[in-house]
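Let us practice reading a record.
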Amino acid sequence: DIFWPFWFTDTPITDNYDTVETSLARAGHLNRASNRLGDLERKLGNRDAARSYYERALTAFGKAGDRRAVARTKVDFAGLVFEHGNPKEAKAMLEDALLTFRELGNRRGIARALEEFAEFAASQGESDRARRLSGAAGAIMHSIGAAAQRDSLTPLKNLDSARQILGGAALDAEMNGWAMTMDDAIGLALAGK
């Protein structure tokens, strides 16, 4: 795996971009890797580099007509945009991604978008809504036989805080989300602030 040397380092991937880009181009994976490179740079705190990779991925996937990949990149990019203090733009990206995943019938993508909506809701002080969305995302992942784990390298700090705020009620909220239909969970996500 070309990314292995960068998983446990504080060295910006951009310092080694020529090597990474050449290897990925040879393998025909440069477009697909841009989103992952954005995740790595975000993890390392290199927000400008992360933004550049996410934008590159959106452009490449858009040109290729890969709507699923565009939506996936928007989910990851939305977290970075939110961190930069633009919640309105981040929410628009998440809404677009969620609607695309629903249209494509991509349940894993829906779950991933719901998870980000949960983090967003928690950051807005909507702890109960956040835990319900998190529960719904977990139920969808379970229904497709996938592990309920994050694809992204960025921890869900706000969602963990929502669990602490709700205390024992966090489990009730999460179980409420677990019992929701997928359409109800999408409606809950789209109805937020």
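A brief commentary: Residues 1-9, 24-28, 150-155 have pLDDT under 50 and may be disordered.
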